[in-house]
Amino acid sequence: MAASEPRILLFPVDNTDYSQKAFEWMLKHFYKPNDEIHLLYVISRVQYAAILGVPAVDYTPQINRDMYEAVVKEAEAFIVKRFLTHLSPEVTSTPVVHIVKSEVDASSVGHVVCFKAEELKATCVLMSIITKAH
Asked: What is the DSSP letter of 67?
């Protein structure tokens, strides 16, 4: 009998305790051996514009490569710290990490998540609660 196809689990992340706790819950209660985990972080227009010090309405696609690389490095650092170092021994492969810069604002990141889920043919999308409290 052939091995079953792995489930593709898409987990959008951010640099919050909520996201980290949801990831740990997923590993404990939902993950099965052979599952393929994909972590997705979206750099929104608002976030990138704030780093450049310009209003989001004035945002242009021209990028300051040093600033952009700094945002990506910051994302990589928190993904390693909050997620990759918390993998349980049952996880047999390293998750795939996707860092995507998007022209959407922070409230529209869901569209990017859905697009990525369709692209990956994800079995499901698991994520933390969304909060505007921080």
From this structure: H
Residue positions counted in the chain: 134
How do residues 37-91 score in pLDDT, each as one tens digit?
999 999 876 555 555 555 555 555 566 678 778 888 999 999 999 999 989 888 9
pLDDT one-digit tens code per residue, 27-41: 999 999 999 999 999
Q: 14-22: long-range contacts (C-beta < 8 A, 24 or more apart)? A: 14/41, 14/128, 15/75, 15/78, 15/82, 16/128, 16/131, 16/134, 18/128, 18/129, 18/131, 19/82, 19/127, 19/128, 20/82, 20/83, 20/86, 21/128, 22/126, 22/127, 22/128, 22/129
Angstrom distances, CA of residue 22 to CA of 65, 85, 107: 32, 15, 20
